[in-house]
TrEMBL record:
Residue ranges of domain SLC26A/SulP transporter in the record: 104-469
Protein name according to UniProt: SulP family inorganic anion transporter
Biased composition (Basic residues): 1-20
Source organism phylogeny: Bacteria, Bacillati, Actinomycetota, Actinomycetes, Kitasatosporales
Comp. bias (Polar residues): 46-66
Region spans: Disordered: 1-98, 619-670
PANTHER family in UniProt: SULFATE TRANSPORTER
The species this protein was found in: Streptomyces gottesmaniae
Compositionally skewed regions (Gly residues) per UniProt: 620-637
Entry's transmembrane regions: 106-126, 173-194, 201-222, 257-274, 331-355, 414-444, 464-495
C-alpha cells in the first residue's frame, strides 16, 4: 500500500474514532458542530450574542436537532451526554424531575408583560394603525405562538423592526388590506416550516443581516423624532432626515412641543442608563418608568401634549372580506406578502439564535418555531392585526426573570388581554412622545453603530456588503435593500471562492503557464492575459499545467481548449496537463479490468500519435500536440521528459500495489 494512501486511511480511522468519542473537531471534521450566527435582531444589545465564551456548547443543540424536529436536548446531551456545557452549573434545578416553578414563571410573565405593553402600543402608533391592533398582536404572540413548542423562552409580538414596512404598506394599500397580507404571510410561513426550510434563513451572510437591521433602525429613529415632538413626519426616510433641522426650529419655538420632546428625551436617556441604577428598582422596565413619568407630566395643569387615542379592543377587529381577498390579484399585494414572509421569518429565526445563547435550556426547533410564527400571523391576519415576530427585548427579559418553560410567555399574552379589556382608560393617559422615545431607543439598538467599525476591522469586504445593504434599504425600501445585500454577499463569496493562482514564465524553449485553485469565469480575464502572454513569447513550445486546478468551469475550459486549438493550428507544440476528476481515463480501463498487479517500474509506451506524459488513476494528461522527432513507437521518454504523480491510489483489483514510478527530469521520485 502506498504511503499516501496509508496516511489517508489512518487519518480516516482517526476521524472516525474522534467521532465515536464524542469530540468536536474543526470545520470539515466529523465531530464539528457549527453554531448559529452571532447576531441579535430588534432591540437587543448585539453583545449578547458575542460575549459568551462558550458559544459552541450553547449552540451545539441547534445543530444537533437538524431539521428542527428532533427531541430537545440539553447542552450536555448535545455534546455527547457525558459532560455539561462549559461554563454551566450542571442541570437546572427541578429540570430532571420535570417540575415547574409556578411562582417564578408567573413573576417572569409579569415582567415580560410590563416590557411588552409599551412596545405593543408604540409599534402600532409607529405603524400608522390603532393602538388596539398592537395589543391584539401581543396577545396572539403570547397565547398562540407562545403555546407552541418551538422556542421555549422566545417571546413574540409586534416588532419595531417591521414598523416602517407596515407603515409603508398601510399608506399604500390601507389598514383593511393589512389583514390579508399578514394572513397569507402566515400561511406561507407554515408551508416553509412543513417543508423543513426553517434553517434556510441561517444560510445568510451576517453582513446582510446586520445591514438589514441597521437599515430598519436608522429610518425608524428619524421617523420617530417627529411624533416625539408632537409633529407629523414628512414621509420617506430621506425626507424625514432632511426635515430634522426644520423640526428642531419648530420645536424650540413651541412650548408644548418642547415639553413633548423633553418627555421623549427623558425616555431615551432612561432606556440607556436605567440598568445602571443601583438596587432592585432597576428590575422595573425602563419603558414602564418612562410611561409613568409621562402620565404624571401630562396630567399637570397647562400641559397639552398629545396622548394615546384608545378605542374598544373588540371593535378594532377587522376580519378580511371578499373585497379585501380580491386584492390578491394585485402584484403589489403579492410582493408585500412575500416581503412580510421573508423579513418576519428571518427576524424570528435570527432572534431564536440569539436567545439560545442566553440560556442553557432546550434549543429552538427551527421548523416548529417557523410553523408557530406562521400560525400566529395567520390568526393576526384573520383579526386584521399587526404581523407577529419574535422580539429580543421581551425574550431577554423573560430569560433574565428566570423563566424555564413556555408558561411565562403564554401568560404574558393573557395579562395583555386582561389589561386591554379591564383598564383601557389607562392607555389613554400615555403621551405619544414617550412611546416615540421608546422606539427611538429601539431604532438605535437595531442600527448598532458600533458594529460598523467592528466589521471594518474584521472583514472589509463584509463591511462593504453591510454598508451597502443599509444604504439601499434607507434610500429605497426594505425588500429591495435585502435583495441587493444578498446579491452583494453572493458576489463577494464567489470572488473569494474563485481563488486562482496563475504563474507564467519562460524556460529554455518553452513558455509555461501553471494554474492552481478554482478557475471560474470570474478569473477569465486573468487567464486570458496569461495565455496571450505565453503565445506572445515566441517560443516553439507552450506548456499549460492545470494539474493544481481543483475546479474548472465551462467558461475557462472552453477558453483553454480554444487557445490550444488555435496555437496548434499555427504550428506550435502545445502540451496540456489537464486534470480529469470524473472518471478513469480510457487508457487505464483495460488495466483495471485485468487481475494482474498494477505496479510498474517504467511507464507503458505512449501512443505514436500524441505525446502523453501520463495516464494514471483519475487524472490524465493528453492532447499535447504532434509527436516530437525521435519518439516513435518503442522509444522511451527522452532525458528531458517530465513525469508527475497524478494519483497515489492503487489500481482496482490490486490493493497492495504501489504507485507508478514517475520521473521528473533526471531525479527518480521513488
Amino acid at each position: 500500500m502506498s504511503g499516501a494512501h496509508g496516511r489517508r486511511h489512518a487519518a480516516g480511522g482517526g476521524a472516525r474514532r474522534s467521532h465515536r468519542n464524542g469530540q468536536s473537531g474543526g470545520p470539515g471534521l466529523p465531530g464539528y458542530i457549527p453554531g448559529p450566527p452571532s447576531y441579535a435582531p430588534d432591540s437587543a444589545p448585539h453583545s449578547a450574542s458575542t460575549t459568551a465564551p462558550h458559544s459552541l456548547s450553547h449552540s451545539a443543540p441547534n445543530s444537533a436537532q437538524g431539521s428542527g424536529d428532533a427531541p430537545e436536548w440539553s447542552g450536555a446531551e448535545a455534546l455527547g451526554r457525558d459532560h455539561p456545557p462549559p461554563g454551566s452549573q450542571g442541570p437546572r434545578p427541578g429540570a430532571s424531575a420535570g417540575r415547574i416553578d409556578f411562582g417564578t414563571e408567573i413573576t417572569a410573565s409579569l415582567v415580560v408583560f410590563l416590557v411588552a405593553l409599551p412596545l405593543c402600543i408604540g409599534v402600532a402608533v409607529a405603524s400608522g394603525v390603532p393602538a388596539e391592533l398592537g395589543i391584539i398582536s401581543g396577545v396572539i404572540g403570547g397565547l398562540v405562538v407562545g403555546a407552541v413548542r418551538g422556542s421555549t423562552l422566545q417571546v413574540s409580538g409586534p416588532a419595531a423592526g417591521l414598523a416602517a414596512l407596515v407603515a409603508e404598506t398601510v399608506m399604500e394599500f390601507g389598514v383593511a388590506m393589512l389583514g390579508v397580507i399578514v394572513l397569507f404571510s402566515g400561511i406561507l410561513q407554515i408551508v416553509l416550516g412543513l417543508v423543513k426550510l426553517g434553517r434556510m434563513f441561517q444560510a445568510i451572510s451576517l453582513a446582510v443581516v446586520q445591514g438589514m437591521l441597521a437599515g430598519i433602525g436608522l429610518p425608524l429613529m428619524f421617523s420617530q423624532l417627529y411624533p416625539m415632538s408632537d409633529s407629523k413626519a414628512p414621509g420617506t426616510p430621506l425626507e424625514n432626515m432632511a426635515g430634522v433641522p426644520g423640526l428642531i426650529a419648530d420645536t424650540v419655538t413651541n412650548p408644548q412641543a418642547l415639553i413633548a420632546a423633553g418627555l421623549g428625551i427623558v425616555t431615551i436617556v432612561l432606556s440607556f442608563l436605567w440598568k445602571q441604577v443601583p438596587g432592585p428598582v432597576k428590575k422595573i422596565p425602563a419603558a414602564l418608568v418612562a410611561v409613568g413619568i409621562g402620565i404624571a407630566v401630562a396630567s399637570l395643569p397647562g400641559v397639552e401634549v398629545k396622548t394615546l387615542q384608545v378605542g374598544n379592543l373588540l371593535a378594532s377587529v377587522d376580519v378580511p372580506g371578499p373585497d379585501q381577498l380580491a386584492g390578491l390579484a394585485d402584484v403589489g399585494i403579492i410582493t408585500a406578502i412575500l416581503t412580510f414572509t421573508v423579513i418576519a421569518s428571518a427576524e424570528s429565526l435570527f432572534t431564536a439564535a440569539a436567545v439560545d445563547r442566553m440560556h442553557n435550556g432546550p434549543r429552538t426547533r427551527y421548523n416548529t418555531e417557523l410553523i408557530a410564527q406562521g400560525a400566529g400571523n395567520t390568526v393576526a391576519g384573520v383579526l386584521g392585526a399587526l404581523p407577529v415576530t419574535a422580539v429580543v427585548a421581551r425574550s431577554s427579559a423573560n430569560v433574565q426573570a428566570g423563566a424555564k418553560t413556555r408558561l411565562s410567555r403564554t401568560l404574558h399574552g393573557l395579562w395583555l388581554l386582561a389589561f386591554a379589556l379591564l383598564l383601557p382608560q389607562v392607555l389613554a393617559l400615555i403621551p405619544i412622545s414617550v412611546l416615540a422615545g421608546v422606539l427611538v431607543h429601539s431604532g438605535w439598538k437595531l442600527f448598532a453603530p458600533e458594529q460598523f467599525p467592528k466589521m471594518w476591522r474584521q472583514d472589509r469586504g463584509e463591511f462593504a456588503v453591510m454598508t451597502l445593504t443599509t444604504l439601499v434599504i434607507t434610500a429605497t425600501a426594505l425588500l429591495e435593500g435585502v435583495l441587493f445585500g444578498l446579491a452583494a454577499g453572493v458576489v463577494l463569496a464567489a470572488l473569494r471562492m474563485s481563488q486562482t493562482v496563475i504563474r507564467q514564465h519562460i524556460e529554455d524553449d518553452t513558455a509555461k503557464v501553471v494554474m492552481a485553485g478554482n478557475a471560474t469565469f470570474l478569473r477569465l480575464p486573468k487567464l486570458i492575459d496569461a495565455l496571450e502572454g505565453a503565445a506572445a513569447a515566441g517560443k516553439p513550445r507552450i506548456r499549460l499545467d492545470l494539474l493544481g486546478v481543483t475546479h474548472l468551469d465551462h467558461a475557462c475550459r472552453s477558453q483553454i481548449e480554444e487557445f490550444v486549438a488555435q496555437q496548434r493550428g499555427a504550428g506550435l507544440r502545445v502540451e496540456l496537463l489537464m486534470p480529469d476528476l470524473t472518471k478513469l481515463p480510457a487508457a487505464a480501463e483495460p488495466r483495471a479490468a485485468q487481475q494482474e498487479p498494477a505496479f510498474t517500474e517504467v511507464p507503458e509506451p505512449v501512443s505514436t500519435e500524441v505525446w502523453d506524459y501520463a495516464t494514471v488513476g483519475t487524472a490524465a494528461v493528453g492532447g499535447t500536440g504532434p509527436t516530437p522527432a525521435g519518439t516513435g513507437a518503442g522509444s522511451g521518454p527522452g532525458p528531458d521528459a517530465e513525469w508527475f504523480y497524478l494519483d497515489t491510489r492503487p489500481m482496482p483489483g490490486a490493493p497492495e500495489s504501489r504507485p507508478p514510478l514517475l520521473r521528473r527530469g533526471r531525479d527518480w521520485a521513488d
